[in-house]
């Protein structure tokens, strides 16, 4: 119950931060041109630093890998169901590809990591568990199999040859993946782990971890803008039903088993 209360507080605080950024945006303090800067600060600085510092002092357990496999299985089921639904409704190939990707993979780790770290702590077992499941179960499959899915539907619509290799190559060179990889390597080197556990390293990386939530809130606040929701109700209904309801249910059922 205590963790639930802390999580609800974290979500509330994050929501208020987003509202505050929206107010500043309306007052002209921020504008849409600032969003790419904050996006890069999150994906190329704060998030990689948090991932690296968490994994570098953690031990990957078999049950974490199993959880990632369960997560991936649930994602693939949702992708398959989304495809069947979209073809039955005769959506275009591009719309089908987008819905399949959103209903299966989505993009929640950037928001989830700050909430987990605030609720359970940056160096907590829950944070490590979330990163391992997020990277092995979602991120890496998304930028490999997910790219193939997106390229397939895009090429069916445009009749062009899909460019898959550059996307995968860019991901393998991205700060997030490199932070994940080097974090795993450092965790296997005792002297490096001892340094990462020192007060200096903990304080150094702590600045990035504590700043991550605010940077994500700024990014989300700048990203939000009015849209015509009526035209998206059918798509939103499919994605919410599969991503927000069915996928967690599948994961929960497998864990109970």
């Amino acid at each position: 119950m205590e963790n639930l209360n802390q999580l609800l507080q974290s979500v509330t605080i994050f929501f208020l931060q987003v509202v505050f950024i929206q107010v500043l945006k309306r007052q002209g303090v921020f504008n849409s041109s600032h969003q790419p800067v904050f996006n890069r600060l999150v994906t190329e600085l704060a998030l990689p630093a948090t991932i690296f510092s968490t994994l570098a002092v953690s031990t990957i357990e078999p049950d974490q890998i199993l959880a990632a496999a369960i997560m991936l299985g649930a994602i693939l089921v949702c992708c398959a169901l989304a495809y069947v639904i979209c073809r039955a409704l005769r959506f275009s190939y591009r719309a089908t590809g987008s819905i399949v990707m959103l209903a299966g993979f989505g993009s929640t780790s950037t928001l989830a990591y700050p909430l987990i770290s605030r609720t359970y702590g940056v160096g907590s077992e829950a944070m490590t568990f979330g990163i391992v499941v997020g990277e092995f179960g979602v991120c890496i499959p998304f930028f490999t199999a997910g790219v193939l899915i997106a390229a397939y539907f895009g090429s069916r619509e445009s009749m062009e040859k899909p460019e898959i290799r550059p996307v995968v190559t860019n991901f393998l060179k991205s700060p997030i993946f490199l932070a994940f990889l080097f974090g795993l390597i450092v965790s296997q080197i005792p002297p490096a782990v001892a340094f990462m556990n020192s007060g200096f390293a903990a304080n150094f990386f702590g600045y990035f971890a504590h700043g991550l939530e605010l940077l994500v809130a700024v990014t989300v606040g700048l990203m939000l803008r009015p849209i015509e929701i009526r035209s998206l109700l059918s798509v939103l209904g499919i994605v919410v039903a599969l991503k927000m309801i069915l996928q967690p249910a599948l994961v929960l059922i497998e864990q109970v088993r």
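The longest helix spans residues 125-158. The two ends are 24 Å apart (CA to CA).
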